[in-house]
Amino acid sequence: MNSTGLYIIEYLLHGEPRSFIIRAKVMSNRDAWHWASCDAGIAPIPKPGRPPLKVVSRPQAEKYGVVEVRWRESAKLDWTEATPS
Fold it and tell me: The organism sits in which domain of life (predicted)?
């Protein structure tokens, strides 16, 4: 199965639903919690080519109101040409 490399992350921030799409080679629960924290403004967004930053853990994120983080890979699109009628 080919991976799209696009992931949808959904979470609650102080009870308000939030979601975003991110491109990554792989995704795990740990990564999803960290990226949700970045989206919520709790953690800095890492800059490409710089040393990696400290990853925000689930307990740290929950202290700031980030809860119920869920992630899934986006659906793969199969493009087909329409035939003129």
Answer: Bacteria
